[in-house]
Amino acid sequence: MPTQSLPHATMQAVCYTQPGAAEVMHLESLPVPQPGRGEVLVRVLAAGVNRPDLMQRQGLYPPPPGANPRLGLEVAGEVIATGPALEGQHMPALGSRVCALANGGGYATYCLVPAGQCLPWPEGFDAIQAAALPETYFTVWSNLFMPTIMAPGTRVLIHGGASGIGTTAIQLVKAFGGHPFATAGSTEKCALCTSLGAKAINYKEEDFAERLHTLTQGRGVNLILDMIGGAYLDRNLKSLSPDGRLVIIALQGGAKAEKADLARIMTRRLTVTGSTLRARDATAKGRIARQLQEHVWPLLAEGQVRPLIHAVFPLSQVVAAHKALEEGQHCGKIILVPDHTQ
Ligand SMILES: NC(=O)c1ccc[n+]([C@@H]2O[C@H](COP(=O)([O-])OP(=O)(O)OC[C@H]3O[C@@H](n4cnc5c(N)ncnc54)[C@H](OP(=O)(O)O)[C@@H]3O)[C@@H](O)[C@H]2O)c1
């Protein structure tokens, strides 16, 4: 049973009844949920918008069984109630400020999150910066740095280098002594990738695999973070050096590959893998959180890596926020804040 009384009985939350265009979303007044075992209730001060949210809203990325079906995968805010701890579990203190990977429901003024998915709010960060961290840092860390932290000198190709995921990946690869290469679709986005420390390739103007071949003196890269899938599979395989690893985290270019030379997997001993963060269980997400706290949170505190914020919208303008991400002109993250903090 929760031990704290809540300040409000109701909250504002983004809802929709049928999947579809951004306009299906609207604000509703709903009861503030009570935290269950192992959960905390966060008063949301900011929430991140991610491409998986757009896909969920369109009906293309259903929430996994048991997850909160409402939108919003990351929040920053204040812990205002806690449920009973799981055995041996450390619960964030009441009143502490956290950023957290949510299992849905972040587009609201209150959000329940599993305690193990909370991380401290980095010192010197505001709510907007703190909310920009969980989804991209959990995704990039778990796919590029687990199970083994990359060795210095590792050459890494990051597709979509100017995205929320891409800007995080470039900085983390750089911070751990790797050599990031990034694709992006405009001169401005390439300039941003370069400013973060990557060698940028404008994939709309040149063949990324050919350019990468030149940039790496024919050696290729050791690791690829891919969000395109089918359309890039053959060129990704071609771009990997022996024992290289391709990690697929999205399929913007389709789930099927027309042609791909699979002989390269054998002759160069390549690994092709991938993951979706939301479907992973609380234990796995908790493990990622603890590694982030140990290895990455100090870098955030030192300013060695940072979230890039493109735009901030009030929760009541969630439709405009989704349209901005859909248009694709952004670099970095789009964030929602409750209307009263605007
Ligand atoms: N598997 C997981 O657990 C997981 C978790 C979070 C996110 N994701 C995925 O990761 C991707 C990035 O997420 P986000 O929230 O950061 O979204 P975002 O900011 O909207 O990023 C999408 C990016 O895709 C790039 N892109 C599109 N077509 C491209 C192509 N042909 N070649 C290279 N880049 C291309 C775009 O770059 P340009 O505008 O430069 O073309 C854009 O920067 C999304 O696909 C999302 O679904 C996966």
Automatic annotation (TrEMBL):
GO terms for molecular function: NADPH binding; oxidoreductase activity, acting on NAD(P)H. Pfam families: ADH_N, ADH_zinc_N. It comes from the Bacteria. InterPro entries: ADH-like_C, ADH-like_N, ER, GroES-like_sf, NAD(P)-bd_dom_sf, Quinone_OxRdtase_PIG3. Keywords: NADP, Oxidoreductase. SUPFAM superfamilies: GroES-like (SSF50129), NAD(P)-binding Rossmann-fold domains (SSF51735). Residues 20-336 form the Enoyl reductase (ER) domain. NCBIfam families: quinone_pig3 (TIGR02824). This is Alcohol dehydrogenase. The lineage of its organism: Bacteria, Pseudomonadati, Pseudomonadota, Alphaproteobacteria, Acetobacterales.
